[in-house]
Amino acid sequence: MPELEMGLAIAAAAALLIPFALWLLRWAQKRRFAKDLVGGEGSVPPGTMGWPLLGEMLDFLRYFKFTNKPDEFISKRRARYGDTGIYRSHLFGSPVIITCSPEFNKQVLGSMTEDGRVSSGWPSNELLGSSSIAAVDGVPHKRLRKHLMEAFTSPKALIAQLNIAELTIVSALEQWVFKKRIVAYNETKAMTFRNMCEVLVSFQSEELLGKMESLYRGLMAGLRSLTINIPGTAFYRAVKEAID
């Protein structure tokens, strides 16, 4: 009987302490990052910072990767915190602000590209470099965007791209005839990538195209992963390929 009573006492204590410990972890996570989101002043948007280290990544992956219902990630927050159009969270290892209304999105994008007050913080500079258009904000972003628009959307550039695309599409269609049976999704992706390589770096080598596509897939996997640079992770493989 004493052993039974002791076991019951331990179980009762655990039933009380475990929920408290979980609450304490979430509270500590909120206290650690909430002030950073507003620079230590004002109030933060509604939401939760999730768990230490993980944040809300499990919930994010559930809707974006496993159930393929990304809209429900936002709908869940609207139902819980109200249709404010802006929420706080902790994703990919960092505190973040999620905006999901046209007004907030316009304000955020304008701040990033006009005066640089807001930064996306994504993707990692380790993968794309600190001077890529995806990594810079404010005036540098406007300057790079202007050059890119001139290079790819001017009438002369569009005509050249259409000529290249025509040759790529005709070549792909001729190859599809000999294959007799194809997976349209895979073939279309391969054709699009081939066209991109021809437009950007002007090569058509099958061997080099295959290597470039493999590197590109690794890069994209790294961009969508947590920035944890340890062996075995997608980010580590992508960084290694970028360095090599």
From TrEMBL:
Record organism: Apostasia shenzhenica
UniProt keyword annotations, A-Z: Iron, Membrane, Metal-binding, Oxidoreductase, Transmembrane, Transmembrane helix
Transmembrane intervals: 6-25
UniProt-listed Pfam families: p450
GO process terms (BP): brassinosteroid biosynthetic process; brassinosteroid homeostasis; sterol metabolic process
Protein name: Ent-kaurenoic acid oxidase 2
Documented EC number(s): 1.14.13.79
Signal peptide stretch: none
Enzyme class per UniProt: oxidoreductase
MF term (GO), any: iron ion binding
Matching InterPro entries: Cyt_P450, Cyt_P450_sf
